[in-house]
Amino acid sequence: MNQNQNGKENRQEDALTNRQGHKITDNQNVRTVGNRGPMTLENYHFLEKISHFDRERIPERVVHARGAGAYGYFEAYGKVGDEPVSKYTRAKLFQEAGKQTPVFIRFSTVTGARESSETARDPRGFAVKFYTEDGNWDLVGNNLKIFFIRDPLKFPDMVHAFKPDPVTNLMHPEGMFDFFSNSPESIHMATFLHSPWGIPANYRQMQGSGVNTYKWVNKDGEAVLVKYHWEPKQGIKNLTQAEAEKIQATNVAHATQDLYEAIERGDYPEWELCMQIMSDDEHPELDFDPLDPTKLWPQDQFPFLPVGRMVLNRNPVNYFAEVEQAAFGTGVLVDGLDFSDDKLLQGRTFSYSDTQRYRVGPNYLQLPVNAPKTKVRTNQSDGQMTYSVDFANESNPHVNYEPTNLGGFAEAEKEGKDHEPHYNERLVRQRIERANDHKQAGETYRNFEDWEKDDLINNLVNALKVCAPIIQEKMIEHFTKADEEYGRRVREGLANALKEMEQQDVTSSPKADEAVKKAEDMGHDAEPY
User: Fold this and answer.
1) How high is the pLDDT of residue 504?
2) Number of Cβ within a 10 Å radius of residue 159
3) Which residues contact 470 (CB under 8 A, 6 or more apart)?
4) Do 117 and 195 sit in the same domain of this protein?
5) 3-state secondary structure of 371
6) What is the pLDDT of residue 488?
7) Residues 199, 76: one domain?
8) What is the pLDDT at residue 7?
């Protein structure tokens, strides 16, 4: 057989087909009455192709829409700091030094749409799916270690305030600062967000955090409060607003590109997972509640204790199938890990999985990127896009319920004592007592380097100068409560900016006006056609 024949044979093996497996011999022309005539309805290949194309997109995530992902592994140290990890948790993936667990990670921005810029001033999502021997564990968090709110009831309002105006569909800072000004607990996060920490240089050089307080449970059912922190071995790098704007001028996907190309060239990014551990009680000696996600746990009292490392070494084969359809949930925990009473965590636990059922479908956990590596045995069935049935060879396929005497699934044996926290309180609607909303924001401001403070003040002034005066005053009041210098510098900066605006007769966002003016002035006239 000559080379041409070989080539033809190979091409036939890889010949184009439709979803039914039918070979497609003409993918260029629809079937018509004559070469200029109308198309006929029996164009099955065209109808299948175009109807699938019409449905290629699934609903965009309301938050975390823009993302990038990669595969890798987590390697346990077998210890937490210098102590055996079994002292605190019976979770199997942590127990043995050198034990590796496959992972998939999705990094993301939060507020922007799917095609928004990755230089946006925005928290970054940091979600890790561990495919453990006991099923999946999702550690869903952000790059910053705190959050804007502590009560999940406020979450929809917070996101609405950060999104484009519902009338103009334009981004404007007034909604965000209106929300901040009436939510004192958000001042700490707002301080981080408007500093260079609000724009990580890329995904490889940013921290990650579980944000919420969780629990670890040992074999005796004893629990401790914990926080998870990912520390990048590549170092931490952030961008000023001016640096971010230079990048955005030529590339709105620089972080996705950076991650993909680093892994392709074998420069595998790595993070160390560190734990903060606290006894499971109210800790009255602290001036904040340890369950409050707007607060940092002081490292001098609760040091970072290394427990393992994560390496990312493989890019996805298909972005949509693996990154866009990847689904995470804060309720996805394995034995030895548990929830705390953090209100925000409990609200997220319903919302995260519920949004995946709406966005991807009721069987989203059957998709390869979301499915556990262990055998799944449930009595759940049916629903859109069911393509596997959860029964094992040894079970009776006629029985899809439990309990049963007829060979269906049985309950698993416990591998340790249950953790049974005790409650004796009234059912109330109240905020936590130790809110202390301004102290840590002031400490964070004072801990910033001078260039970070300068960028923070500049960013706040540029955003606040187009907001209503009542919002400006309320925000200055919050910043002053956090730190006198902090509030004074924002007030002085705003006064100077407002004078300049009066001289220029600017009434809306200066940067937006500048862009509109440039587009008009720099455009080229053209004749109608």
Assistant:
1) 75
2) 15
3) 181
4) yes
5) coil
6) 98
7) yes
8) 53
Per annotation, catalytic residue among 29, 43, 52, 142: 142
pLDDT value, residue 1: 47
Find where tokens 């799917």 sit: 114
CA distance 463 to 461: 5
Q: Give the residue ranges of the annotated binding site for heme.
A: 352
Residue 273: both structure tokens together: 């997972």
pLDDT given at position 466: 95
Q: Please report whether residue 229 resides in a domain.
A: yes
User: 33, 32, 66: which is closest to 46 by C-alpha?
Assistant: 32
> What pLDDT, on a 0 to 100 scale, did the predictor assign at position 287?
96
Residue 64 known to be catalytic: yes
CATH code at 15?
4.10.91.20
| 328, 349 Cβ separation under 8 angstroms | no
Quote the pLDDT of residue 515: 79
| Residue 455: per-residue pLDDT | 97
Domain that holds residue 170: 67-366
Helices (H), 238-341: 241-248, 254-264, 319
Whether 386 is covered by a domain: the verdict is: no
Catalytic member of 45, 64, 194, 254: 64
Which CA distances in Å does 420 have to 220, 331, 362, 527? 11, 18, 31, 77
Q: Which residues in the chain come in under a pLDDT of 70?
A: 1-12, 392-393, 505-510
Q: How many domains does the chain have?
A: 3
Is 419 assigned a catalytic role? no
* Two tokens, residue 17: 């087909």
**Residue 216: strand, helix, or coil:** strand
The number of CA neighbours under 13 Å toward the Cβ of 305 is 18
Q: What is the pTM of this model?
A: 0.92
CA dist 56 to 27, 52, 59, Å? 19, 6, 10
At residue 420, what is the residue type? E
Let me know whether 250 and 295 are in one domain. Answer: yes
pLDDT in tens, 441-475: 999 999 999 999 999 999 999 999 999 999 999 99
* Binding-site residues: 352
At 493, which helix (H) or strand (E)?
Answer: helix 484-504
